[in-house]
Amino acid sequence: MPFQEIDVEHRVRHLSILDPEGRVDKELEPDIPDEMLLKLHRMMLFSRRFDERLLSLQRQGRIGTFAPIKGQEASQLGAAAVLEDGDWLIPAFREMAAELWRGKTPENVLLVYGGFNEGGVTPEDVNIMPVAIPVGTHMLHAVGIGYGMRYDGKDRVAMTFFGDGATSEGDFHEAMNFAGVMNTPVVFVCQNNHWAISVPLRRQTRSKTLAQKAFAYGIPGIQVDGNDILAVYAAAKEAVDRARSGGGPTLIECITYRMAVHTTADDPTRYRKEEEVKEWEKKDPLIRFQRYLKAKKIWSEKEAEKLEKEIAEEIKQAVNRFEEKAKSYGDSLVMFDYVFEDLPPYIREQKEELRQELEEKKEA
Fold first, then answer.
1. Are residues 317 and 342 in the same domain?
2. Which of 262, 288, 291, 292 is catalytic?
3. pLDDT tens digits for 128-162?
4. What is the CATH number of the domain that holds 87?
5. Does residue 5 fall inside a structural domain?
6. What is the pLDDT of residues 306-353, one digit of tens each?
7. What is the C-alpha separation between 14 and 231, in angstroms, rounded?
8. Is 194 a catalytic site residue?
9. Catalytic residue among 23, 203, 271, 348, which?
10. pTM of the entire predicted model
11. Which end of the chain is less enclosed by CB atoms within 10 A, N or C?
12. How crowded is residue 197: how many other Cβ atoms within 10 Å of its Cβ?
């Protein structure tokens, strides 16, 4: 029998609205009220300054390791901003800006990074799942949440974030397939920051884009400039509206860059060049957005100075609240008591090692 051709051609759209200089494409500019633009800018600036403070605290030994978000604020806030109160956010481990936007407190972020499980507890009316360290596993949780909401007849949406490295995990493909088959109201936001720790994107896939992986599962996929908050907002709004109206899932690939370390235990100078980082610094999403706001005449350098002082004070107070809460929590050694009924020798050794370290800190 002769071969029959099946037309499966798809084209990936790339959306960019703000160029690196902050110049806007008026035909594509989304209709966002000035009040919302300023709110987004405030959170973007707060997230950047808080991220910097977290790094300082970690270097001082006052919190543990964490994954900085510098350079990826637009990808997170542009997407999270279109969610409604009843929607769900399912983060990976580098979504601090989105978590803050959705109602997580700065002191809870600090508690998580300080090693306190209490930081993962969110209020009843804040629909955020805890940070997921295992790469990709949380995407399945997002699909399950979306499936459950659809089953209950709720017009709610689940949004999950992950990196380019997660697209190499089987969980990614399972989640995408189930979401497509069951038509779940889930928006997959891939923050393609070009590096899965030290593995570059070219070693992850031969696909020209990550967005095109959506087509294999029969769902829409789009690529956006992840350092352009307006483009992310526009793409996310279309995807969320589609999901809420019963149109099913969408994959959004945000092209961005991890301008800092993978985590505070990482040394990126061992695998990437400083010239590459400097090129991406020219595309800084915060500076780009500020240029746009300035051109719209709704923000100025004078207002920036006042805002910086406000944010610095808010971060200072959050750190104080965190340290006061940390003092009130119980013995850190209890973490060893809820894994095994009878502790194996190597766990007993670790527990004793930590006990001695804590004692030494008290004496110091």
1. no
2. 262
3. 999 999 999 999 999 999 999 999 999 999 999 99
4. 3.40.50.970
5. no
6. 999 999 999 999 999 999 999 888 777 888 888 888 999 999 999 999
7. 9
8. no
9. 271
10. 0.92
11. N
12. 14
Q: CA gyration radius for the chain? A: 22
251 part of a folded domain: yes
Looking at residue 1, its pLDDT comes to 60
Q: Is 354 within the bounds of a domain?
A: yes
The helix (run of H) or strand (run of E) holding residue 47 is: helix 34-59
**Considering 138, 242, 258, 288, which one is annotated as catalytic?**
258
pLDDT surpasses 80 at 229: yes
**pLDDT, tens only, 33-62:** 999 999 999 999 999 999 999 999 999 999
Query: What is the torsion angle, in degrees rounded to the nearest 10, for the CA atoms of residue 144, residue 162, residue 127 and residue 44?
Result: -160
Could you tell me the two tokens for 184? 């779940």
**249 in the same domain as 127:** yes
The answer on 132 and 255 residing in a single domain is yes
Asked if 320 and 340 sit in the same domain, the reply is no
Q: Is 258 tagged catalytic?
A: yes
Q: Do 353 and 254 fall within a single domain? A: no
Task: Please confirm, yes or no, whether 147 is among the known catalytic residues.
Answer: no
What is residue 33's predicted lDDT score, i.e. its pLDDT? 97
Chain mean pLDDT for the chain: 94
Token pair, residue 310, equals 């406000």
Same domain, 305 and 356: no
Domain span at residue 356? 336-364
Q: Domain total for the chain?
A: 2
